[in-house]
Amino acid sequence: MIDDLFCDLDSKDQRREVLTDGALILHGFARGETAGLLAAIGEVIAAAPFRRMLTPGRLRMSVAMSNCGPLGWLSDRQGYRYAPLDPDSGQPWPMMPELFAQLAERAAAAAGFPGFAPDACLINRYEVGSKLSLHQDKDETDFGAPIVSVSLGLPAVFLFGGLKRNEPTTRVPLVHGDVVVWGGPARLRYHGVQALKDGRWPETGNCRINLTFRKAGPPDGR
Ligand code: MD3
Ligand code: FE
C-alpha cells in the first residue's frame, strides 16, 4: 500500500504529457541531474558570460543568453543567425558538456526522435520580469531535427501557439526539471515565455535557466 503510494508519486514525477502532435513534456526528466547541470552551466558561463543581445530593431532583449557547442545563436543589428565564434570574445563557444549532449539525446529518444545529435545549445537566463515574445525557431538549417528544452530554477508560463502568429495560444506551466521535445509537425509552432514572476530558487540564484538543444548546422556538420 505504502509502496503503491510511492510508485504513484514516482510515475507522476516522470509523467509524459502530449501537448500536440510532435510536442511532448517529460515532467521532471532532468530533476535528478540538477547539480551536474548547474555546475556545467557555471563552467560555460565563466568562459562565455550571459549577455543581453540586441534585436535587429535595436531593442535589448530582457533574457540574457550564452551558448555552448560548435554553433551558437546570435542576435544583433544584422539579424538572427548561428555562428561558431562568440562575438564578445572572438573565441569559439565553449564545448558542449558531455552531460548536456547525453541528456538531450536521451530525452529526444524518449520522445520518439532517436539519434539526436545537437550542435548548438542556447542557454537563456530569465530574471524577474524577463520574457520572450511569440516567435518561431527557424534559423536552423534542418527542421527535421527536434528541439529539446530543459527548464531549471523558477517556474515559468510557456505560451504555445500555432503555425501562424495570429492563432490562439495555450498556457503551459513549466517547472524545474521539466524537459520538452518539439519535433515533426510541432517544430515550427509559434511560442514564447510570459514575464517571469518573483520567487525563491537559491540553486539558480532566483532566476530561471532554460537550455535549448538544436541541430542548427547542415547534417554533415560542414
Ligand atoms: C516550440 N526558449 O530559446 S523553450 C528559444 O523557455 C525559446 O527559454 C524558451 O523559445 C525558453 O527559442 C522556450 C521551448 C521551445 C523551444 C523551441 C520550440 C518551444 C518550441 C520550437 C518549436 C515549438
Ligand atoms: Fe524559441
From TrEMBL:
Residues in a coiled coil are none
- Binding-site list for 2-oxoglutarate: N124, R125, Y126, R208, I209, N210, L211, T212, F213, R214
Question: What does the entry list as the binding residues for Fe cation?
Answer: H135, D137, H191
Give the keywords, sorted: Dioxygenase, Iron, Metal-binding, Oxidoreductase
Q: Which GO terms describe its biological process?
A: oxidative RNA demethylation
Kindly state what the record says about how the cofactor is bound.
Binds 1 Fe(2+) ion per subunit.
Q: Which GO terms describe its cellular component?
A: cytoplasm
Q: What SUPFAM superfamilies would the database entry show?
A: Clavaminate synthase-like
Q: According to its UniProt record, which cofactors does this protein need?
A: Fe(2+)
Task: Please list the residue ranges annotated as the Fe2OG dioxygenase domain.
Answer: 117-217
**Could you identify this protein by its name?**
Alpha-ketoglutarate-dependent dioxygenase AlkB
Underlying gene: alkB
